[in-house]
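stage 2 :: seqdesign
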């Protein structure tokens, strides 16, 4: 008996109907190699790293970041930024494999017991499609925070709950002098600022930028 294959549009439609059933989607991957690409669009639409163990598991499963399913991710949630950033530094740009991310959430539950400043520099321009950015709670230098925001030209929604650890004294209405330019994206969605610690300076600069918000 000759093989009978489904038309691609029928296959895609069927897989789309199963978008919220990960168990069934995994079984679909075993049916045929041709089923894998579209199935991965749903299986890896949201990637979440809750711990260093989860990050290591991903890297062991997909040792070649360039050929990993990271590019299928539309939402990336990180609960262990220290480990992710360290991994990116070791492998020279590992984070950029997530080039299709539209929603980025960075959390650090240990923030209240830490004095170390977490750098999010690797996330600058890592995804040209980024539209939503949530940082909660984390410690960042003000210049790095603005660089991160300015590097996302499509940014629509911004949620910040972080403490500005910029060095220096209060030199004026914006606190420590920081070079902030008006090239920040024009946000069209939601701006949610939870002002704590030294975050007031950051909030004022966001709201006072000419041609900004």
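stage 2 :: out
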């Amino acid at each position: 008996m000759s093989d009978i294959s489904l038309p691609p549009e029928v296959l895609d439609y069927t897989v789309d109907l199963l978008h919220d059933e990960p168990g069934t989607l995994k079984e679909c991957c075993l049916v045929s190699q041709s089923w894998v690409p579209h199935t991965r669009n749903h299986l890896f639409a949201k990637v979440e790293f809750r711990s260093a163990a989860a990050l290591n598991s991903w890297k062991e499963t997909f040792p070649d970041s360039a050929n990993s399913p990271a590019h299928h991710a539309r939402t990336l949630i990180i609960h262990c930024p220290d480990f992710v950033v360290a991994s990116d530094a070791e492998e020279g740009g590992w984070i950029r494999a997530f080039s299709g991310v539209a929603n980025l959430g960075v959390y650090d539950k240990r923030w209240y017991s830490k004095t170390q400043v977490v750098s999010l520099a690797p996330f600058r321009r890592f995804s040209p499609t980024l539209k939503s950015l949530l940082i909660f709670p984390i410690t960042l230098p003000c210049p790095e925070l603005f660089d991160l925001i300015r590097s996302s030209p499509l940014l629509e929604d911004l949620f910040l709950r972080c403490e500005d650890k910029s060095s220096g004294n209060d030199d004026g209405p914006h606190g420590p002098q920081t070079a902030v330019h008006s090239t920040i994206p024009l946000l069209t969605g939601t701006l949610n600022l939870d002002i704590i610690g030294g975050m007031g300076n950051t909030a004022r600069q966001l709201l006072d930028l000419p041609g900004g918000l």
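stage 3 :: structure notes
- Confidence is low (pLDDT under 50) at residues 167-183.
- Residues 44-208 form one domain.
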